[in-house]
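Subject: Sanity check before I submit

Could someone independently write out the structure tokens for this chain? I want to compare against mine line by line before I put it in a report. The sequence has 70 residues.
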Amino acid sequence: DGTAVISGENIDLGSRTLNRIAIGALKRTSSSPQFYMSGQIGEVVAYGSALSSEDVTAATDFLMDKWGIT
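---
Independent answer below. Compare away.
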């Protein structure tokens, strides 16, 4: 439906598409990524469609339990 969820925040993309993804860095322009994250990424999860709020909660709960985050 054109909605991306990034760090728990819904962002309406409208007719735009995401054709470049920078994981662990903030990409502000078409140039190289900037503002690299200091840390480790334990897991990346991608879905083929927008999740309902219930699905987001279920996925969050599952991953928090899996990684021992309380």
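---
OP: Matches mine. For the report I'm noting this point. Helices lie at 53-66.
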